[in-house]
Amino acid sequence: MKEEIKLFGFLLLLLFFIIKINVLRGSCVNIPCSFDVDNTHDKNLDNSCKAYWSDSSSFTSENAKLKPTKEMTGDLTKKDCTTTFNNASLLQSAKYYFRLECNNPLKFTFTQAGVDISLIAAPPSPTLTPSTLEVEEGASVSLTCSSPAPCWSHPPALTWSPNLGQSQETLQENQDKTKVKTSVMNFNASHLHHGNKISCTAVYQKQDGIPDVTAETSLTPDISYSPKNVTVSVSPSGPVPENSNVTLTCSSNANPAVENYTWYSADGNQDTFIGTGMDLSIKVSKDRRILFCKAGNEIGVGRSSSIQIEVQCKYHILHLFNIFSIHI
User: Fold this and answer.
1) Same domain as 197, residue 276
2) Does residue 199 contact residue 160 with C-beta atoms inside 8 Å?
3) Membrane topology for this entry (predicted)?
4) Distances (CA, A) of 6 to 9, 68, 78
5) Which pTM does this prediction carry?
6) Domain span at residue 156?
């Protein structure tokens, strides 16, 4: 057997490091690959050259485990050995090496680098950046969801739930020539988002007739906001006798929690301070005052609607009693 030419050759994959690719069973995979040879042998790179892959570093075209066709391989004359396997069942979890064979003295197995294939039954969960969200209401937020795309022709579809704003998708290339699908969603933070899960779902198509598979990642935002929905409740409720005592309670929704409550009476355009605290006890009179409360935290202050306590006048009650007695 004619001895093979000994070449200075290498795969430009992570600078001699072995790249790792997770391959979803039933899907396809693209193996990014480029090589170089000594320039004295560039003339041997012609259309007769073919690519082979095997999980052994010592193999020939006869015992190669994988024999890509021209349609599955990059342009070898341009030192592009990127290979597509549309049927991942041809692969197994192993380390694969690339071999170049041309119908001339150029035959070489690149053992300095390879690709580590791992077959997986379920896709990895997408990556959310940032992984946590703590902002103040009104802040501009940009969430990035990314998921590996080992099959370039069928990258995962990324969806947001809920869809809070505009999103833009790209198929990006890593330094090791693998690719990742990325979706960026931009929105303004609202108190309505606080504590409500935001999730990104990656949907992977499979080529063996098996239904699509999905993977999800989520976060629960912590949105700081000033008091909202400030309300006043009265106990006892309904019309109350004149000069009786009632308790007013001020409540609201806020993050962080309310630090102080203040009470006011409104007289035209002038507000008069009358007390502090969540609860306020007062004696009602026929002079019906208009009241409201304010709730404040470190973010800001919220104000309730104005209320007016309904009072039963003693004179009115006595007058009705006298009329009733006369009729008897």
Assistant:
1) no
2) yes
3) Single-pass membrane protein
4) 9, 24, 20
5) 0.78
6) 127-220
